[in-house]
Amino acid sequence: MKNYYRIMLGRGSEHAAACFEGNFIGADFGVHQDLTGKLPDNWPAFNKEFIPIFLDQHPAKSRVAAGLACGAVWTVSKGIAVGEVVLCPDGLGSYRVGELTGEYAYAAGELLPHRRPVRWLDQAIRREEMSTSLQNSTGSIGTHCMITKYAHEIEQLLGDVQLSTL
């Protein structure tokens, strides 16, 4: 079964346009190193290794903040599988829908450097078209949230647009 996620592209969707134009999603959180070969299959193992590194680099942050940041970086970088679907707010009242098409890549010195390639669909979903439950779920705080339980509704909102079976 394909999973669906809402992913924020920067605070307040500030990097959404660049992500849509560049065909990627990404995360930052001040983790300034290439994670290629350092992304285990589960986030607790990643957090165990990277929370201490994060806290060394950001001593004013709490352990909870470090855990949330590392978990978000892992989810965007590894936790979402190729072929799964992301909904990303555009900052203008709609959500762009895309499918992950590849694995992690590091873009040193660029915005949201922990990246995954995405094939964005041409169609967007307006927030007011969503059910109240889907609106509430996509409006949750944090960088990511799973919205797989709304897959049928999302597919209905997309209409004739076909998601591939990557």
Report on this model:
With 166 residues, this protein is of the alpha+beta class. Helices cover 33% and strands 23% of the residues. It contains five helices and seven strands. Strands 1, 2, 3, 4, 5, 6 and 7 form a seven-stranded mixed sheet that branches. β3 and β4 form a beta hairpin. α2 (43-57) crosses α3 (63-79). The radius of gyration is 16 Å and the shape is globular. The relative contact order is 0.23.
List the helices and strands and how they pair.
Elements (H helix, E strand, L loop, with lengths): L3 E4 L8 H7 L1 E4 L15 H15 L5 H17 L5 E5 L4 E7 L4 E2 L7 E13 L5 H7 L5 E3 L4 H8 L8
Parallel strand pairs: 1-3
Antiparallel strand pairs: 1-7, 2-6, 3-4, 4-6, 5-6
Summarize the structure in short.
It is built from five helices and seven strands. It has helices at residues 16-22, 43-57, 63-79, 132-138, 151-158, and strands at 4-7, 24-27, 85-89, 94-100, 105-106, 114-126, 144-146.
Shape, per Cα inertia axes: globular
- Which percent range describes the beta-strand content? 15-25%
User: What is the succession of H and E elements?
Assistant: EHEHHEEEEHEH
Mean pLDDT: 94
For the secondary structure, the number of strands is 7
Oligomer: single chain
Number of helices: 5
- Helical content, roughly? 25-40%
| Overall radius of gyration | 16 Å
What is the end-to-end distance?
A: 12 Å
Largest sheet: 7 strands, mixed
Structural class: alpha+beta
Low-confidence stretches: none
Task: Supply the key terms.
globular; 166 residues; 5 helices; alpha+beta; 7-stranded mixed sheet; single chain; 7 strands
